[in-house]
Amino acid sequence: MTPNHRGDRRRRRIGLLGGSFNPAHAGHRHVAERVRRALRLDEIWLMVSPGNPLKPRAGMAPLADRLASARAIADGRRIIATDIEARLGTRYTQDTLRELHRRFPRSRFVFVIGADNLVQLPRWQGWTRLAARTPIAVLPRPRWTRKALASKAAKRLARHRRRPGALLAGPPPAHAPSSHAPWAFVPAAEHPASATAIRAAAARAPSRAPAPRPAAMRRAMPSPRMQAAAPAAR
What is the pLDDT of residues 4-28, one digit of tens each? Predict the structure, then answer.
């Protein structure tokens, strides 16, 4: 089931995992499953971006192809691939989240990012407003986790850090304007899959050989390495 961009009034706990998904891969599925269980979410939306302002257009597959790859790793029930950002007509994440809060007023959203994006968060337009309004769950990425926990964003938001189980405790920030949304680091296995590596492998492959299908990549992916526990949040 694809979310209706016009919205609804159902009560749900929804994780928003946005990205280019160029292509989607086993690492995305791993993150979605881990954060859904850890935060007891009803759904995870794989929000396929029509275009990331911080990424070059060269080498970016068409939206339809990237959406198809995301659907191949989703289950359509708990993990759902969607092009809702294109349907909303928003360009920046802060605008997308504002529209989702408005159109789905009874849903509780958690913005899910990798450790690499926590490092890059200060480059995003309106990032402090985004962090103040929507809870953020940060998951480890190979070679990025320590940088993330010492990053500018982590330091700026340090007093709002909570344990994962507390991310959706209390009223939504939208209902309590003076409050600030929390964020949490969600310990998980680091998954080695990388869209960049998949594209590079496809480019090196003989032209007559078809690119691997996302579902096949999920089955063939090696087991992830367990990451050492991160410092506990206060």
Answer: 999 999 999 999 999 999 999 999 9
